[in-house]
Design goal:
Elements: E1 7-12, H1 17-27, E2 34-40, H2 46-53, E3 58-60, H3 72-84, E4 89-92, H4 101-106, E5 111-115, H5 127-133, E6 138-145, E7 155-162, H6 169-192
Parallel strand pairs: 1-2, 1-4, 2-3, 4-5
Antiparallel strand pairs: 5-6, 6-7
Helix pairs in contact: 1-6
């Protein structure tokens, strides 16, 4: 009998390009998983539209009064929704808020993020701009476990992207995203199926 596919829940705040890369990897059987639910802290986020276009359950969370985190009761609601959807792994895809106790305790060692730099360099917002301002010659992206800090969790995998002299923040970010869209699904496959 075939083993059921692991169910993942995706949290995102923006356009959903990493969500789309994960969904594409699933469709092409490079990633053996099922996206059970997409949640966003932004009701206008493109990730919600992309998920609904693929007939994947997608919901906006209640509006938060904070910019960098959710109120504990909203995060507890998110955890509840993920549990109800039988999610086993929580995958952050352009999610712009810190994760705190309600989610970390419900999904211990099961919350994963991708960040657009070679951590520990350039944590936080607009890491590609930080790399350019620091005159870095190499940057990239990092898949890491999520803890309560900002991009401080243990590193799982990284991919390098060379910084070109001609790079603008937009051109560098675009190349980092290309690397993310390969690294993230491949790393998820390895984590979800360590036996392969």
């Amino acid at each position: 009998m075939l083993k059921p596919l692991p169910k993942i829940g995706i949290l995102g705040s923006g356009s959903g390009s990493n969500f789309a890369a994960i969904a594409r990897a699933i469709a092409e059987t490079r990633l053996h998983a099922e996206i059970a639910l997409v949640l966003s802290d932004n009701p206008e986020a493109g990730i919600l539209q992309k998920a609904r276009a693929l007939n994947i359950a997608a919901e906006a969370l209640p509006k938060s009064k904070f910019r960098t985190k959710l109120e504990p009761e909203i995060e507890a609601l998110a955890a509840e929704k993920l549990m109800l959807a039988e999610v086993e792994w929580v995958v952050l895809a352009g999610y712009m808020r810190l994760i705190k106790a309600p989610l970390l305790e419900r999904f211990p060692n099961r919350v994963i993020n991708i960040h657009p730099s070679l951590l520990p360099s350039f944590p936080g917002l607009e890491a590609w701009t930080q790399a350019l301002e620091a005159k870095a010659t190499v940057t990239g992206c990092t898949v890491h476990w999520v803890d309560a800090g900002m991009d401080t969790g243990e590193i799982i995998a990284q991919a390098k992207v060379h910084v070109l002299e001609s790079d603008t923040p937009a051109s560098l970010h675009a190349r980092i995203q290309v690397a993310e869209h390969t690294l993230y699904p491949a790393t998820l496959e390895r984590l979800l199926h360590p036996e392969i």
